[in-house]
């Protein structure tokens, strides 16, 4: 079945991320001057305002910072409710957002802030692979 | 003369119809009705307006009114835009650039379902070419509730609070709405689900974005409102009572919720600090609080940020009855965005209620409908826009 949810359109700024995702790698922007990782990709480091930014391969691991359960959604996501959305603290620093996998949306009390998560990628189109995060055993 | 009280709100009015009009309204229509009403209320002719402040529509409105304003501000940063407009108008008047400013709002949040936005107010979020939007668009979020829920879950985690704790906010706010016949949810006559509600009603309502049920979320209605602000010499010469802008501040912590470092803290901490400092007043001096209630979590968090409650304990103002009718600190006395009216951007509704309370006209009402007058002489108004992103805080005081 073809992918029926929103697919991002890369810009020159974000293209390297998708090139990595296609190979199953989570590439993250890192400032060459202050060494900090930031997310989302930027033209300038939000911490020290350097424009010297390169991409590093992240561990693909992090922790759940907070979450919610969506009972109302639009488009392709409407068929998936209820589903869990979450903000993920990356091991490298800063935060990504995701639809969280490996959890029971009908039992939010069982979902734990701080749970360990790993990234995986869904192929949305020929060139676009989208990261999702899954709760894994400690 | 300092910046504090360099200008006053001299009138505040709404469009003739708000809520769910039978005949659909355009946003422009809602603007113009409110502007006409505030001009009549104050006796300030529309031709005397020198500065125009709106969330994105100032040029269209000025043209519609046949004005050539010498100060134009279209700041559009979500629901707090209007508190920020008041701040900007204070500065423009203090600087002597203008003497009379119009802050105006028209938004057909309800009618647009039938006739489209049609020049409606719009919040300028990220679009194509915005990497923040690009990296969040794939995950099924559907507007504000789907984001704000994450803040409540984080608050529960950090402070041991529960969704039921926050359910007291809509229950108490509904009690205020029952005292305001103009509130959408005032009674069974205004809406089939109107009238008082219980904690169980809130918790058993349809789930939107767990832990937020529908009754933790604001309404979606029509609203128009307008406020006139003038320099002291003019303010003292009018038939209406001035409400003095003692302090004003604005701030933002992020635009995209991805960048919200602490999900239980907002920029209202900074914007209120600025406003209190300008006013020479503190949270302990506030006798009324109008805190934007897009969701139950919003005013509770804001109360913590503006110093009305300790961190993690904002919800207690409602749970212990302090914010309720007859409580020590009346809050959201119009019935709030939760039960009075919320058109998408609610900052103007806050301004209108603040003016009514501090000018002593809540019982006279605007548009001939009674409200509920409190004895408050000081009021903190805080608007919150975006995803707990941008805030504008005003400290307003009644005329001596
Ligand atoms: Zn840097």
**What CATH architecture label of chain A applies?**
Beta Barrel
Characterize the main sheet of chain B: 9 strands, mixed
Biggest interface reads: A-B, 39 and 33 residues
Quote the distance from N terminus to C terminus of chain B. Answer: 18 Å
Q: Per CATH, what is the topology of chain A?
A: OB fold (Dihydrolipoamide Acetyltransferase, E2P)
Alpha-beta content class of chain A: mainly beta
Biggest beta sheet attributes of chain A? 5 strands, mixed, barrel
Order of strands in the sheet with the most strands of chain B? 3-2-4-7-1-8-11-10-9
Structural class of chain B: alpha/beta
What CATH calls the topology of chain B is: Peroxisomal Thiolase, Chain A, domain 1
Assign a percent range to the helix content of chain B.
25-40%
β-strand number of chain A: 7
- Give the C-level CATH assignment of chain B: Alpha Beta
Strand content of chain B: 15-25%
Short note summarizing the structure:
Chain A has 138 residues and is mainly beta. Chain A has one helix at residues 15-22, and strands spanning 27-31, 53-57, 61-70, 83-90, 95-101, 116-123, 129-135.
Set out the fold topology.
The complex is a heterodimer of chains A (138) and B (400).
Chain A: H1 15-22, E1 27-31, E2 53-57, E3 61-70, E4 83-90, E5 95-101, E6 116-123, E7 129-135
Parallel strand pairs in A: 5-7
Antiparallel strand pairs in A: 1-2, 3-4, 3-6, 4-5, 6-7
Chain B: E1 8-14, H1 27-42, E2 51-54, H2 58-65, E3 71-73, H3 81-94, E4 100-108, H4 112-115, H5 131-134, H6 144-159, H7 163-177, H8 199-204, E5 207-210, E6 212-213, E7 222-230, H9 232-235, E8 243-252, H10 268-279, E9 289-291, H11 297-305, H12 316-319, H13 336-340, H14 347-358, E10 378-385, E11 390-398
Parallel strand pairs in B: 2-3, 2-4, 9-10
Antiparallel strand pairs in B: 1-7, 1-8, 4-7, 5-6, 8-11, 10-11
């Amino acid at each position: 079945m073809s992918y029926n949810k929103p697919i991002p359109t890369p810009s020159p700024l974000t293209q390297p991320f998708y090139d990595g995702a296609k190979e199953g790698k989570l590439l993250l922007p890192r400032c060459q001057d202050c060494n900090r990782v930031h997310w989302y990709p930027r033209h300038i480091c939000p911490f020290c305002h350097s424009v010297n930014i390169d991409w590093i391969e992240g561990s693909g691991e992090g922790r759940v910072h907070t979450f919610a359960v969506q009972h109302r959604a639009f488009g392709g996501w409407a068929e998936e409710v209820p589903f869990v959305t979450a903000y993920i603290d990356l091991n490298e620093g800063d935060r990504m957002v995701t639809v969280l996998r490996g959890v029971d949306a009908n039992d939010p009390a069982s979902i734990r802030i701080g749970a360990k998560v790993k990234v995986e990628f869904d192929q949305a189109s020929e060139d676009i692979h989208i990261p999702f995060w899954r709760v894994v055993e400690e | 003369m300092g910046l504090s009280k360099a200008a006053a709100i001299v009138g505040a009015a709404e469009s003739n119809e708000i809520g769910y009009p039978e005949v659909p309204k355009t946003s422009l229509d809602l603007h113009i009705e409110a502007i006409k009403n505030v001009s009549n209320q104050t006796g300030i002719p529309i031709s005397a307006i020198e500065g125009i402040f709106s969330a994105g529509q100032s040029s269209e409105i000025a043209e519609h009114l046949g004005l050539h304003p010498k100060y134009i501000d279209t700041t559009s940063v979500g629901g707090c835009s209007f508190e920020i407009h008041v701040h900007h108008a204070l500065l423009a008047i203090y600087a002597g650039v203008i003497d009379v400013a119009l802050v105006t709002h028209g938004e057909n949040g309800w009618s647009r379902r039938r006739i489209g936005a049609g020049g409606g107010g719009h919040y300028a979020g990220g679009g194509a070419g915005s990497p923040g939007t690009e990296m969040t668009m794939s995950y099924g979020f559907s507007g504000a509730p789907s984001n704000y829920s994450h803040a409540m879950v984080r608050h529960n985690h950090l402070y041991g609070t529960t969704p039921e704790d926050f359910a007291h906010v809509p229950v108490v706010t509904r009690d205020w709405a029952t005292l305001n016949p103009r509130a959408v949810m005032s009674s069974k006559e205004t809406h089939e689900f109107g009238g008082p509600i219980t904690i169980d009603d809130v918790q058993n309502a349809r789930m939107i974005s767990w832990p937020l049920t529908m009754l933790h979320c604001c309404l979606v209605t029509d609203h128009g409102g307008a406020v006139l602000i003038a320099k002291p010499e003019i303010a003292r010469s009018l038939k209406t009572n001035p409400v003095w802008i003692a302090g004003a501040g604005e701030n933002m912590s992020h635009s995209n919720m991805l960048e919200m470092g602490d999900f239980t803290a907002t920029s209202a901490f900074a914007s209120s600090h600025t406003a209190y400092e300008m006013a020479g007043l503190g949270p302990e001096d506030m006798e009324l609080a109008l805190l934007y209630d897009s969701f139950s979590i919003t005013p509770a968090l804001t109360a913590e940020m503006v110093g009305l409650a300790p961190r993690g304990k904002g919800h207690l103002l409602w749970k212990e009855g302090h914010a309720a009718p007859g409580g020590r600190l009346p809050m959201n006395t119009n019935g709030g965005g939760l039960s009075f009216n919320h058109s998408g951007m609610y900052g103007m509704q806050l301004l209108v209620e603040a003016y009514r309370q501090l000018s002593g006209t809540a019982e006279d009402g605007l548009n001939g409908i009674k409200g509920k007058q409190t004895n408050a002489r000081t009021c903190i108004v805080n608007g919150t826009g975006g995803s707990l992103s941008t805030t504008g805080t005003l400290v307003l005081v009644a005329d001596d």
